[in-house]
Write a structure and sequence with these properties.
Four copies of one chain form a homotetramer. By secondary structure, chain A is α/β, with parallel strands linked by helices. Chain A is built from 16 helices and 20 strands. A six-stranded mixed β-sheet of chain A has the order 1-2-3-4-5-6, with helices on one face. A five-stranded mixed β-sheet of chain A has the order 7-8-9-10-11. Chain A has a five-stranded parallel β-sheet with strand order 16-20-19-17-18. In chain A, strand 14, helix 10 and strand 15 form a beta-alpha-beta unit. Chains in contact: A-B, A-C, A-D, B-C, B-D, C-D.
């Protein structure tokens, strides 16, 4: 009897494959399903069931794709708002066998209306469950967000409170297997720790420890979460079932001859190299989205249907970026251009660069006509910020561009300079050219001993 | 905060690396320590501590080797019989920090006198431990064996009973991380399951559930365990610290010209291919030890200081075998010969093969002058066996060879035919030539509907 | 300017990719075209042209597939018997540029009517060609066979003679790049050497050295070549263009429960493990076709449309076998079964094995009622054979089965025992059960000092 | 009979392994010898001989190391100035067998006094050699340099002329296998083409075509070649035999806390990322040496005994750099630091960047007080340069630093901006801070249509 976690960095998504005696089940598969198939093979198991703990809003579910390849049955909780088309509906108390493993459904709505949790029993040692898959209902150190149904936050928070009580009563001795880890937009304040038990959470998880229903609800109502625009597309897609992802077959990478032509034919130029490389040299008009930040910020700056050309150091780097895009339904990454800017400049091409400034310089520049633009989350900004800085969350730049002016001078900042670089590149691409990046940003400012407002 | 398990197949050994905020610790490292170093690097961590839960008797500890490479400190429990030379002694209550992780020592003797368990706390969520490393004290589904000190089984079993109570009182909500999984010779009746919690074990582990000290002790006294001869070498070595393993650099593999010469120069010819390949063609006098069975049975048929030449299908297969040998201190695997027997025969070489017989044939042959030789464990044999079969445990063949005669005809058998093949090859190598292998063995016999004695 | 050879073992096929300054061309691509695309990428080149030196009869051309993926143009020589549908016709003197490379067509019929050779020039150093692609017209150490057009051997041999003179006159200083190496069925007596020049061949190649047209023709007429039945399918397919090969996606490998059921559902059971493993244990009725022998002998024993289940040691081995089958148009390898015969026997399954005999035993057995069956090529048999042995070429067993009797006892032999094992398995699958394999075969016989007839 | 080329990028070095019937020979092995051993294994060959075509001055020979591992014999030409200690001396006419391969020595001094060439015969087709290893005597498109012996250029050039005539007379029909390809400092004007024959070279190689001894000598005397300072160390080392290279075992990479401390403990900080990344952010005082430029320019800016800390994007990149350093005897690359500059700045660290300017900007700046510093080779500079630019070859910066002033403003330039970045970083590290890089350099300048001086 084995359990293996398949993590998706960027989305902080956790999926699981469990198996015993030639049979296996997958919980919350992502779109690229090869890993599940390969793990099942290693253990000489046939995938029998696929469970979705709820309809995902932040990534494409691979359930329909994996079912198609393996003939496994997909199981999904009941949903009054519309049934998932490729799945059977399961209800509280339904149970399933996977070799020696027994699985039992708990209905645990709150994060979404269709959320379920799944108890895991060992039929050879079956006095109580040994594990529980909690989806986005309960995380390590936090619980799921409840703000997805407009006007129903209070109701959903109350449902979540009750679901958590049900989990406590059924699974005290179990290991917890949630659908997200630290860094996900589906919750906040999750532990960095990747392992826990329900009873440890009952003693330590700040939200799980709240025993008053009202207190719990008002805490949830007061939370602030961002909701990227692609969530609605994910929800629609995960109702009908996504198609398998086919990596773009990049046959003949070639250095760009002229950037202008590229923009016409190739859509957005997305530069996925580390920020330093982007700062030092890039195609005019290209966006800065390093591979590790691509999922978190690409979803705000681009649309799923946008045509994308990747700028990367190597084909491997481009493929990694294309895969990450595909997991969230951005499928039009058709090509890649190797990053060789000295060569490009020598051939007569125009190469752009972005200037960086340090804390001492920033302190002087803001006395002149340079506007600090802080692109962190509002919760970070509220905690402490530099006096006189203007706040626009990086993800909101597209919709708030009109608050900025092409005639003004901006210094972008965040916590370290990473998001500030992404923001600066976006402003440049949108015609706001006088932009510099505050390298080190809030960290450098505070380390220099300068004042902040809180 | 991460935890990662490093498994050693063949030995069913489990070791762990944990880390947080740039620091890491390793629990019970094996001799080939590259994996720990590489996992630490992936998480950008420095290895700060190495813990040994007890002095290993079944494999070479990599603690001294890893300490040498990383400058980490090694920690080991107190041992009245002799201190481990490369480690600091730790006592119950001692505690250590690894980033955000807190570790606390429990003294839990019983399996050995120096056994410790280690509680794992998350300092951000520190109401009770979230994990516990139990070494060979407590397994999933079983507890450690207590027969290592001649004449002290009762005393050790009593100590183990008390240690288990201590673990229960301290770590009820914790996930359990033991040093062995199913298949180890360090315990019996372990669960196939690879994950559990202490509270789940308290409800389900048959040995942990025993609440009477006397009952527990008499159960332990009644157990039967084999103890391969290399255990004593391991114990000595793990007191002073083993040297790093250097894989043999096999520069120029060549087909053997004459087996006789090979035997002089090359020591034992160990054929590590699958049994079927051995049965179909092999060098006269070579032993059959497929990679997956090599650790379990090589330790009985060979001595650590024996010179070994590997016969393998490929260099990769030979390297895998050499690595497995090195983990248990058999370091003299200096070379490998590719298995190409038709070529060898065409060049004038002598190729041996082993005949197999099926259940129907066996039923007839034992009526004639063929002796069935059952090489399973005594516990398996006692459960059921074929009437008239002689029992010698595969591991005891070297010392009980005198019970067999070169003039007699033998059919070797086990549960499936795997161990029977290993046994048959050994008999042949020792001059007992009239040997056939019962393919399918006890399984085939019973599936054919024939009688067994119980 | 680079040239890289892509070899296909089993078929001894050689294809080439050349490139310069961002452009590349491929000569005689095989069906699995990934390697060409990946080499082109490594050199940052776009594939511009694909050349076929002639219509292949022994493997599926990948020209149409590669053209489809890269938009390259396919070029093929003129053929009065029917034009290749996916290619442009080129004629002697036509020339093409690939970066700094100049290519020029020579019409060199003889092996086939549409055979061309291609001169390679470096435009920076263009006094004479530096290389020549000779297809199946000229090999290292031999020339192409001329027996493909019934009744036209003399005519084709004459054309070949003239073509060779043309090559000599145009490319004396060039390196030769032929379409096959030693081991191909498209010629005989090729050198083991993988590199040569035209002038070295002019001094050393026995067939190229013949200066009399008549002598050359009569030599060619006297040659004996086998022509496997799938050749005609290849010829048809390479006229219209094959589809891309999609590897079977083996989702859930499972041990067979009953061989009988397998035979119904799974078609031929093809065991691709080394011969020794097959001899030691296999499914009754399965064929022995080790990966390295699969292309050479599978084409005689199976039909392209046959359903095939692979028996292999690992998935990697099965995939390798499936790929080799696909290169010659055998696309129905839909699944694989791991080879674990002791387990299978223990579960009640029937496991077969094949007995081997050595030279001394053979010498005795042929005095009794055992018939030696020599399955080598007729040319090998004619050179020397054991008195009393019957000859049927391994590839002709299917059509000459009626010459054998299920009531007789056979010992199969070849040069070493490899082909003898393949033959023995085939006889068994066809109901001729009393078969043993002469391990070492002719080699062992002669090394034992026994007499042969010549 | 196979031949395989092992290329060393950066050094443009070509070495070879040939084999036949279980035996192999290596020609001019580099220091990291694993590839030769692994290729020999693939072909099931034992390495019997190692040949050095001459004493290498530009890289560490691996002959002594490989001989030590394989017990092969090393063969080297006669050298009046001092014998290679680990080799046997061979003379013209000496011959050796490697399976079916025959090798015959030609003494071909000129590039060095001990230079030999080696004819390759196929003993089955032995009318004339089929290949020739020419070392640094004859390249494709050029011949070896003859300026290594002070005051003896004329004499050496004459010897080379005679050696080339010997090669022509012996190997007209042979393929040429030289020790360097395009990009090496051991010759100039080599063809980009990687394959040729002696007769093709006789018709096309400009130096080989010169039939007058005097003309040839005066051409050679007029050539200009740079000679990096490490050459003398290589020559000494290759006389006694280098030790094997052991890759630094980088156990715990950590972000630097303070650069100052780093400089004390860690020696030179060598940043091996692409130039754009360096320009965008780097440690103050670090040098810019991208992996691909490291061998060519590191040898001028550093000493073999210098302590080096690598700054890299990943451990793989650092290992690649460390390996390249080791091939030229720079063994003190003991550690690496991951490049994460935004994080470093946020933690209070100081991050430097380098400004780039384009052609239009340069045109204006040089009218002001900015001095253009052209760091190309003198031959490039002489061909065309920008009016008013100062020339110092990049490799000569260390010795000509006194020609520059810390109070002046410099714009560095080369052909594209790559070497200009390396130069700018070096100037900064040496306290000349007002430096900008001309991105696109000469290429951009000319593409902009601006004037050059020739």
């Amino acid at each position: 009897m084995f359990i293996q976690t398949v993590k998706t960095p960027g989305l902080a998504h956790l999926s699981y494959i469990i198996g015993s005696q030639g049979e296996a089940a997958v919980i919350d598969p992502r779109r690229d399903v090869d890993d599940y198939i390969s793990i099942a093979k290693q253990h000489d198991c046939r995938i029998k069931y696929i469970f979705e703990t709820h309809r995902n809003e932040d990534l494409i579910s691979g359930a329909a794709i994996l079912a198609n390849l393996t003939h496994a049955e997909v199981k999904h909780g009941p949903n009054a708002d519309g049934e998932v088309q490729y799945a059977d509906v399961v209800h509280g108390g339904d149970s399933f066998n996977v070799g020696n493993i027994g699985l039992e459904i708990l209905e645990t709505p709150g994060h979404t209306k269709d959320s379920i949790s799944i108890l895991l029993f060992d039929s050879d040692f079956n006095d109580g469950p040994v594990g529980i898959f909690t989806g986005d209902t309960l995380f390590i150190g936090d619980v799921g967000r409840t703000d997805f149904y407009p006007g129903q936050v209070q109701k959903m928070a109350g449902m979540l409170f009750d679901s958590l009580r049900l989990i406590e009563s059924k699974a005290k001795q179990a290991i917890i297997y949630p659908a997200h880890g630290a860094g996900s937009v589906c919750g906040d304040g999750m532990a960095e720790r990747e392992f826990s038990t329900i009873s440890h959470e009952m003693n330590n998880n700040p939200m799980l420890k709240i025993q008053q229903r009202d207190t719990f609800i008002s805490k949830k109502v007061a939370e602030h979460h961002y909701q990227p625009p692609y969530f609605s597309a994910m929800e629609r897609l995960n109702l009908i079932g996504a198609s398998a992802y086919n990596a773009p077959r990049i046959v003949s990478p070639k250095q760009l001859a002229h950037v202008d032509q590229a923009k016409q034919d190739l859509g957005w130029l997305i530069d996925v190299r580390p920020v330093e490389a982007f700062l030092g040299g890039h195609y005019p008009g290209s966006l800065c989205l390093p591979v590790a930040m691509l999922t978190a910020y690409g979803v705000w700056l681009l649309q799923p249907e946008d045509k994308i050309t990747l700028i990367a150091q190597s084909e491997a780097m481009a493929n990694k970026a294309a895969l990450q895009f595909s997991r969230i339904g951005f499928d039009h990454t058709h090509s890649y251009v190797p990053a060789e800017f000295a060569k490009f400049a020598a051939a007569g091409g125009e190469v752009a660069s972005l200037n960086t400034v340090c804390a001492t310089q920033v302190k002087e520049l803001i006395k002149q006509d340079w506007q600090l633009l802080d692109v962190r989350k509002i919760t970070e900004y509220n905690q402490d910020h530099i006096k006189g800085s203007k706040h626009i969350f990086l993800g909101h730049l597209p919709e708030k561009l009109n608050e900025l002016s092409a005639n003004k001078n901006y210094i972008t900042m965040c916590a370290s300079g990473m998001r500030a670089s992404v923001a600066a590149a976006y402003l440049r691409a949108k015609g706001i050219n006088n932009v510099q990046v505050f390298m080190g940003s809030m960290g450098a400012w505070q380390n220099a001993g300068y004042d902040v407002e809180t």
